[in-house]
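Predict structure. Chain length: 117.
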Amino acid sequence: MRATGGQWQVFVVMLLSGAAGGAWLCLTEYIKRRMEAGRLLSLLCDAAFALGAAAVYMAFSLRASWGEARWYQLIAWLIGLALFMAGPRVPLFLAVRAAGRLAGLARSTKIWQKIFK
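Prediction complete.
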């Protein structure tokens, strides 16, 4: 029982890691849409997502269980990703899009144009 006592904490950490992976996916999808990605840029964004998701998974796994690879960690990561995609993905995507539009409006102001000629 002593060896399995902290598994629920690792599970929760990996759920949060999956949510962070979902946020990274939203960011790469936003970049692809914003830049009207062709085949090459789409491939680069997908590769960036894969590398970033692997880095997030490894970082959280190292933090949660000193890098031990367990199936329940991967399952928790996938559940966290699925919960993120089912829940806060749309509001986050809308917030990122609104921030992008505000940045675009800021670039079109006269003071911005005077500062950055």
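Summary: DSSP finds five helices and no strands in the chain.
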